[in-house]
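Our platform keeps sequence and structure together, in a single record for each protein. Because each token names a local backbone shape, the row as a whole describes the fold. One such record is reproduced below, unchanged from the form in which we store it:
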Amino acid sequence: MDIIIFAISFVAAFVFALGGVGAAIILVPIMSTLGIPMNMAKPVGLFYNTISLTGASINNIKNKRLDFNVGIPIIISSLLFAILGAYISKFFSTKFIIILFILFLLYASYMFLFHKKKQTGTYREDVPVIKLSLIGSFAGLLSGMLGIGGGNIISPLMLMIGYNPKKIAAITAFVVPFSSFTAFLTYWAMGSVNWRILAIASVAGIIGATLGTIFMQKKLNAGSVKKILAIILLLMAVKLIFKVL
């Protein structure tokens, strides 16, 4: 099982790094299908998100790409609601969580296939605290409940209210480690962390994501890769649908 977890984590991290996203969205449901309890798989995904995006955030800060004023309301709200999401998840059945995951996989695959970022025009520079806090709250809640980062929720919602995609990418990379780590700590406090699985998946994930990023920059078109990722997510959603039937 250790070898299987390492191999799956490596491959998932490598493939999803090609599209510029974290692999937690696929690691958690795969681990569930292998028989690992959902509440044990979720903290693995959350910890992986934390370590994989912290480096990107540090780089963004060094290069002054991060707008702290816009990011802070999302961080605070997502952090608080990630804790809430992780805590209340224990009151829901595994079947309910899997159904939520199916819906999220379908949503994410749709975004990969059809969502197009605005390329031109005037982007907003103000800080609508209430809207940003609502985005952070929603992303944090799902992050805690499902063991995902929430970046796939934050990005399109910020696009919808008019922010520059480059600014969004920096903010998402900054926000997700906070919400992921606080949710991870909540699962740890509830005794849901298997440190052996966590270590194996994280090491494999770091190696896979690093190699995937290098390979993507040298060899592949990101747009084509995102279509492949969408197909992978759809296939996993179908597999989970059969699991809950």
Q: What stands out?
A: The chain has a mean pLDDT of 83. Residues 2-114+125-244 form one domain. The first helix runs from residue 2 to 18. The CA atoms of residues 139 and 150 lie 5 Å apart.
